[in-house]
Amino acid sequence: MCVSADKGQGKTLSFDETVEDLDISLLRPSLDTVQVNVGYLCNQSCIHCYVEAGPSRTEVMTEETAKVVLDFIDEVAPKTVDITGGAPELCLSFRFLVDELVSRGIHVIDRSNLTVLLEKGMEDLPTFLAKNRIEIVASLPCYTQENVDAQRGAGAYTKSIEALRRLNALGYGQEGSGLVLNLVYNPLGANLPGSQTALEADYARELKERAGVVFNHLYTIANMQIGRYAELLEKQGETNEYAALLSSKFNPDTLSSLMCLNQVSVAWDGGLFDCDFNQMLDMRCCDDSALRLGEVPARQIAKRLLGAKISTAEHCWACTAGTGSSCGGALSR
Predict the structure, then answer these.
(1) Assigned domain for 11 exists
(2) Is residue 77 part of a domain?
(3) What three-state secondary structure class fits 95?
(4) pLDDT band of 11, cuts 50, 70, 90
(5) What's the pLDDT score for residue 6?
(6) Which residues pair with 271 in a beta bridge?
(7) Between the ranges 134-138, 192-196, 295-299, where is the mean pLDDT highest?
(8) Angle 96-98-101 (CA atoms, 0-180°, nearest 5)?
(9) Residue 290's pLDDT band (boundaries 50, 70, 90)?
(10) Is a pLDDT exceeding 60 seen at residue 9?
(11) Long-range contacts of range 43-47, CB-CB < 8 Å, 24 or more positions apart?
(12) How many distinct structural domains can be found in the chain?
């Protein structure tokens, strides 16, 4: 909820009403990035996961769907394809998709939980990623073992550090290598991230001293009140407190930099969404449940997406609070 003096003292506004009150239209002017969620299968079950990913999830992108996604990518010609999950590397279509995208000269991002690199059958995965010069955006919610294990399970920190060392050994995060390794921080509890610049400096110092690990940049991301994190807030009695915090920290300067303005999210089954968060809430692009790759011509979909209004709701407070939050970190300083 948000209080707006323009609408009368004490009047509470929804997110949509707040944006309307500012006379801002959230329309997609371009499509630079296609984010592909290849499924919810994961080797972890993190308590903050809005996707509710885990080892028992069966939703995984088939190679047939991956080919349809590639047809769409050929039509819209994005600069970047951002592959996420779950643990995207566990999807059997992951390497096929990466090979095809690299052959097209497209910049590819792999959103990794790091521990998957140590799973059986993944021994050559770091080398595969390095060979294809894939940018890695790796989740590491803290530089201390206590906080990482509390959020991701016992042993997650040790495995994550080992994975980072293997990536460093291949050149990832090393100056001049061109192999980009970025880390992602998200806070424990019903809090917003601190300064991205300050946290990046802390991470760089602590990881170097504690484990000899280096990386390129740190992204700070606010926890989204969806999925397991929403359940955690409810269990701890912090749902209303967190909602009030987000809306009270609303920053209108973030609106022009929202990631949904320049990207689209593709689900494991070809469904289309303005972002991965909307995907979890089944809020389809253009408010059209029939808009699915393989069922509607790619060219027709591309035309509809450009200039289309972004679907928003109360969860959007998380992306616009404080310095803002996106898959690329803070939106403002």
Answers:
(1) no
(2) yes
(3) helix
(4) low
(5) 29
(6) 292
(7) 134-138
(8) 110
(9) confident
(10) no
(11) 43/87, 43/90, 43/113, 43/115, 43/116, 43/119, 44/87, 44/113, 44/115, 44/152, 44/153, 44/156, 45/153, 45/228, 46/113, 46/151, 46/152, 46/153, 46/228, 47/151, 47/152, 47/228, 47/229, 47/232
(12) 1
Weakest-pLDDT range from 14-18, 123-127, 287-291, 297-301? 287-291
Residue 203 CA to residue 218 CA, distance in Å, equals 8
Produce one character per residue of 318-331: b if its CB has 16 or more CB atoms within 10 Å, e if not.
bbbbbbbbbbbbbb
Give residue for tokens 């807030």. 233
Residue 330 belongs to some domain of the structure: no
Q: What's the burial of 41, exposed, middle or buried (CB within 10 Å: 0-12/13-18/19+)?
A: buried
Separation of alpha carbons 167 and 98, rounded Å:
18
CA distance linking residue 7 with residue 199, whole number of Å = 37
CB 34 within 8 A of CB 82: yes
The alpha carbon torsion through 221, 225, 227, 231 (nearest 10 deg) reads 120
Residue 96 in domain: yes
Residue 118, domain CATH: 3.20.20.70
Domain residue limits at 305: 30-320
pLDDT surpasses 90 at 126: yes
Q: What is the CA radius of gyration of the chain?
A: 19
